[in-house]
Give the backbone structure.
Amino acid sequence: MSTIADRPTVTLPRSVERIVVGEATSDGAGVKLNRVLTQQLQRRLDPFLMLDAFGSDKADDYIAGFPDHPHRGFETISYMIAGRMRHRDSAGNEGLLENGGVQWMTAGSGVIHSEIPEQEHGVMEGFQLWLNLPAADKMRTPWYRDFKAEELPRLTTAGDVAVTVIAGETHGVRGAVTRDGTLPLYLDLHMPQGTQFAQPLPAGHNAFVYVYRGAVQIGGQSVSAQRMAILKNDAGSDGIRIDAGEDARLLLIAGRPLKEPIAQYGPFVMNTQEEVFQAVRDFQNGQFGERPR
Ligand code: CO
């Protein structure tokens, strides 16, 4: 799908609150990644719990993937720019995530899944975002869907910015997934040099940008590649305006905060410690279902 859409009006754009470098770490069976949104930022960026960026052309950095592991209480959104990852879970789902595809998984009451690369060389690059669920939905039935690149809604703005709409709505185009409550917006923007992008957004929604190619300017502040910019919730602001002084690619992510307590232990994110302990017991007792094979 491709649409030419007019530029929406944003008259009081937000400014940058801070630039975040992220932490080099590894997860799963030793996959090297940059944890951009760390646990310390969960309150500030509520309803988002984590953003990992992984990218390497060295097989040793990714080849072992993420073997069987559980999740409860939130959603994982994986977006693959390059490479192939095979997913299997305890709900019986299986899918292949590849170039430009998105996998949206609602862990809800609990899943066990594995994410294993299906390549032995070449570039592997992508992102995993964790979106919290409201207390009332944390124990809902797990849900899962794969979107191939060509199934994702896309548009090109009148200003020549190519947009993939993973979640939410922009320029009159609805994303692959929408959610009541947190109203997540998740856009991948490809901005040629000299272009501008504007997105209306309520001042109360938390928002950030992650640049993965080139650099952009937001309110006069430069944001370069591998950097996250947390955007201020300036009172009276009505959106975001981004300028690309050079070719740039970036994620724009925003949502309405839940303002509920967050209790996390590894892959379990609940509202209280007791609920987290319960999650660990339920997992150990086999209540998350059969391990995928
Ligand atoms: Co996982």
